[in-house]
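Example record

The entry below shows one chain as it appears in the dataset: sequence first, then structure tokens.
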Amino acid sequence: MIRFEHVTKRYADGTTAVDDLSFEVSEGELVTLVGPSGCGKTTTMKMVNRLIEPTSGRILVDGEDIAEADPVSLRRRIGYVIQQVGLFPHKTVLENTSTVPHLLGWQRKKGRERAAELLDLVGLDPSVYGDRYPDQLSGGQRQRVGVARALAADPPVLLMDEPFGAVDPVVREHLQTEFLRLQSQVRKTVLFVTHDIEEAVRLGDRIAVYGSGRIEQFDTPATVLGAPATPYVADFVGADRGLKRLSVTPIEPGDLTQPPVVHLDDPLSKAAARLAADGARWAVVLDDAERLHGWIPADAADGAKGTVRDHARRMEAWLPVGAPLKQAFSTMLQHDAGWIAVLDEDRFLGVLTPARLHEALRRSIDADAGGIARGDVQLQTVADV
């Protein structure tokens, strides 16, 4: 969808902002451009909608050389979101959101309907917020309006220049979560500029790590964190890149261990026998449909009468398969749990323990380094030495 071919931007004073840049962004892909201030990432993005003209090279959007396109028409076909939002203070939220459809000649009713639809999509009820003015909104709400406005004309490409950088960390994390949800629905081709490696890792399908006017590495977040291409990239992503990688490594069925399982209507004597046979201190409790109900400790089953139902405890620590290891680690800490249950919708798959979490992270890193599937990685443990 977006292709840079040997693009250079050199200013009259001799400063080279971007030097011989070549890369491609696929349709529906979200690519984060990350690096320190002055490295050329914002210049790269602004050349896509011709706010900055390249000195040499070609940029193509959907196969069209943008140098041959009318700049105004081009910009109306590309969504653009900036940190300062840039809402018109004298226009309502609904009017701000319908700005581009109006400029494209849409009928007023159609434009407002589209604006209302997008406001609802970004979590702002148009019946509540549509008639408000920008100064009546919080910073996070203004950013949501900015995203809705950029999407109003249904552009295939979305450019985002540090859109969440001006809000506090809590609101920023919430906006990131909402944007990922939104992107899963609209699947736009996105260039997202940020200086925050954690934001780049969390949002990007791929990351372009910038040095001085050049891309030092262009790969998936997991690969950038697990196998930095250069010492510069390793230094930029940080010594704690192993911890950052937790956020981009999903829980897989092969990471799980299988504990003893009992059912709600099992006699406690049966549960006690099962626990004793496994030498386990607890068992997972399922209902008749094999859905997770909770857990039962060995001392609650040993010598007691009745059924498992009478002594089962509620299970708070659980996650769906595919959730990131970072969320698993956080859930363990939040609930002071030595393990968490992992589900596939309602079906119980197994449990993830701290040891298995660590193994999953090691497998992920070794898989990327060796170019093999995660399940094919053979780990050497202390017991193997």
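Notes for this example: The chain has two domains: 2-248, 253-360. The chain has a mean pLDDT of 88.
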